[in-house]
Amino acid sequence: MKTISRMVQGEVLKSVAFVTLAFLALFAFIDFVDELRWVDSSNPQGYQVRHALAFVATLSVSTLYDLLPITVLIGSVFVMARLAQSSEFTVLRTSGLSPGRALRIMLSLGLVFTLLTFAIGDFVAPAADRAGQLLRAKYLRELTVGQTGAWLREKQPYSSYAVNVGVLQSDGNMRRVRVIEFDNRGRLRSINEARTGRFGTDDAWVLNDVARTEFNTEPGTTARVIRTQMAEIRWPTTLTSEMVSVALLRPERMPTIDLFQFMRHLDANGQSSQRYEIEFWRKVFYPLSCLVMVVLALPFAYLHFRTSGISSFVFVGVMTGISFFLLNDLFGYFGNLRNWWPWLTAAAPGLLYSLLSLSAFGWLVLRR
Q1: How far is residue 277's CA from residue 79's CA, in Å, rounded to a whole number?
Q2: Would you give the distance in Å from CA 292 to the centre of its chain?
Q3: Contact of 201 with 167, CB cutoff 8 Å
Q4: What is the mean pLDDT of residues 21-50?
Q5: Which residues are within 8 A (CB) of 290 and not within 5 positions of it... i.e. 6 or more apart?
Q6: In 3D, which of 130, 134, 139 has the Cα closest to residue 171?
Q7: How distant is the alpha carbon of residue 175 from its chain centre?
Q8: 52 and 29 Cβ atoms separated by less than 8 Å
Q9: To 5 degrees, how large is the angle CA 126–CA 131–CA 137?
C-alpha cells in the first residue's frame, strides 16, 4: 500500500506543480503588462522595467496563495480521470485499494497542500505584498487610499482620538498625519496636524513639524482657540504600524494575528469589525479548501470511460473550482451586508462543497 500511496501522491504532486506553474506564468504576464503603464522610461531614477518585474515577482506570491486550491483541484482531477481512463485505478482497486484507503491517501496529500497554503498566506504572502507595495511607493512616491488616506480611531481613559494617515512612505514612515482629540463628552479638544510622523519604539508616535490647535470650551470659561507650532511631539498610542498597514493595504493580505489584533482594536473603540472578522475567518478556513478540492477530485477516479477524452472532465473540475471561489466571494459580500455570523460566512462554502464531494464519492462507490 505504501507503493500505491507514493505512486498516486507523486502523480498528483507533479500534475499540481505543472498546473500551478502554468497559471502563475499566465497571471504574471498579465500583471506585468498592466504594470507597464507606470514605467517612466524618460526618468532613469523613476519606476523602471526592472522595478515592474520585481513588483510582479512579489505579487506572484499572493497569486500563488489564491491559486493553490484551484490548481490542486485541476491537477487532482486530471490524475484521477487519467487513472480511470487507462483502467489503472481499476487495477489498483483489484489490488486491494479500498475506497477508505483511497480517501485517506488523498486527504493526507490535501493536508500537505493545506499546510503549504497556510504558510504562504500567513508568512510569505504578507511580507511579499508589503515589500511590493513599498517598492512601488519608493519609486511612485507614495502609498495612500483615495484622496484622504486611512482613518483610524482609538479610545484612551480620558480622551478619544480620530487619526488620519495620508501617506505611508517606502521607509515605513508617515506623511500628512492628523490626530483629532475629543474629551469623554465628545467635545473637540485639539487638532494636531503633522507634516511627517514615525512609529516609536515605546508605544508612541513621534510627530514632526506639528501645527496644534487647542479648543477651550469648558463651561463657565471664555471659549478660546489657541494655535501653536511645534517641531516635534510624542503621542502615546496603541496603534501600531501593522494596524496602519491594514487600513492602507488589503486586509486579506495581512497575517492572521494582525487581523485578529485589528479586530480587537476596532471592538475596543466601538467601531464595526464585521468586514475584518469575515476576512479573519476566511484566512482561517481558506487553507482547508485544499482538503475540499482533493475530496472533490476523488470521485473522478470511479468514473468508467475508455474512449472519451479527459478534457471534458478537467473542464468540469475547472468550473467546479471557479464556482467554489465565486460562492466564497458572494458569501463574504452577503455576510458583510446582512451581518451574518463571520465564522459561518467563511466556513459555509467549504462545508457545502465538502458535502457535495462526499455525496458524489459515496454514490459512485456504494451505488454503482
Answers
A1: 37
A2: 19
A3: no
A4: 89
A5: 68, 69, 72, 110, 113, 114, 117
A6: 134
A7: 26
A8: no
A9: 125
Return the pLDDT at 186. Answer: 83
Cα–Cα distance for residue pair 357/152, rounded to 1 Å: 43
Look at the alpha carbons of 190, 191, 197, 203 in this order and tell me if their dihedral is positive or negative: positive
Confirm if 217 and 207 have CB atoms less than 8 A apart: no
Give me the long-range contacts of 363-366 (CB less than 8 A, separation at least 24): 364/299, 364/302, 364/303, 365/99, 365/302
Measured between alpha carbons, how far is 240 from 181 in angstroms, rounded to an integer?
A: 18
- Cell numbers 466556513: residue: 347
In degrees and rounded to multiples of 5, residue 197 shows phi and psi of -160, 160
Polymer length of the chain:
368
Longest dimension (CA), the chain: 94
Which of the residue ranges 35-49, 192-206, 307-321 would you say has the lowest mean pLDDT? 307-321
Q: What does the alpha-carbon distance between residue 203 and residue 293 come to, in Å, rounded to a whole number?
A: 44
Domain boundaries, the chain: 2-140+277-367, 150-239
More confident residue, 318 or 77: 77
Give residue 145's pLDDT.
Answer: 52
Per-residue pLDDT, 117? 94
**Beta strands per DSSP E along the chain:** 150-156, 159-168, 174-183, 188-199, 204-216, 224-236
Residue 305: per-residue pLDDT: 59
Q: 3-state secondary structure string, 119-137?
A: HHHHHHHHHHHHHHHHHHH
For residue 251, the model assigns a pLDDT of 66
d(CA 35, CA 134): 15
Least confident of 142-151, 164-173, 209-218: 142-151
pLDDT digits (tens, 9 = 90+) for 61-118: 999 998 898 899 889 988 988 888 888 888 888 888 888 888 899 999 999 999 999 9
What is the mean pLDDT of the segment spanning 288-301? 86
Q: How far apart are CA 65 and CA 324, in angstroms?
A: 15
Per the listing, cell 507514493 goes with 6
Confidence of residue 226 (pLDDT cuts 50, 70, 90): confident
